[in-house]
Amino acid sequence: MLREQLLSPYQPGTSPVHRLPAGSKLALALVFILCIVLLPPGSWLAFAVLSVALVAAALGARVSPRQLLVRLLLVEPLVIGVALLALLQPGGWPLFLSMLAKSTLCLACMLLLTATTRFSDLLRVLWRLRVPSLLVTTLALLQRYLFVLLQEMERMQRARRSRSFHDGRASTWRGSAQVAGQLFVRTSERAERVYLAMCARGWKS
């Protein structure tokens, strides 16, 4: 299912990239991103070389190009929105294209990392690196309960459609707004119940 593929990006495999330790892959990804950030605008040859390196790594990892492309296209509008700010200054087109290339390469690198590394392994690396435990725990809970939140939203939308007989656009927007409001209330209530249950089991905030 597309939703599960997007929220669970890891693609199991036995490639050399998959077998690399999660810490090594995270370090390589950070070095790769740092190199991209430090490149001056207009370094098109360097951008091309880094793009070829990413494609070679993806081919070596034997991950699905379609899934990587779909996930990249989903986040690309955010990149374009940020890069468009460069057009507000005179002669901003070269800077816009450079920002777009840099951001796209960084995103592609992180997407490849998450496609070849389990999220739990990345959390363990962050834990060993002494990243604040509250941040690591928040990331773990976010990844775990995001699916619960989406399932709750699907149930509410399905119940709403079964009780609604209006197909107009205004009715659809009004129904979506009501679902969003109810989802916020239910999410807050569930978060409180989960927190109380965790405290009852020895959780220390």
Largest sheet: none
Q: Which oligomerization state do the chains in this entry correspond to? A: single chain
Describe the global form: globular
* Span of the ends, CA to CA: 36 Å
Query: From the alpha-carbon coordinates, what is the Rg to the nearest angstrom?
Result: 21 Å
* Number of alpha- plus pi-helical segments: 9
Portion in strands: under 5%
Order of helix and strand elements from N to C terminus: HHHHHHHHH
Structural class based on helices, strands and sheet pairing: mainly alpha
- Poorly predicted ranges (pLDDT <50, ≥5 residues)? none
Q: Please report the total strand number as a whole number.
A: 0
The number of distinct structural domains comes to 2
User: What is the helical fraction, as a range of percent?
Assistant: over 70%
Q: Report the average pLDDT across residues.
A: 80
Quick structural summary:
It is built from nine helices and no strands. The chain has 205 residues and is mainly α.
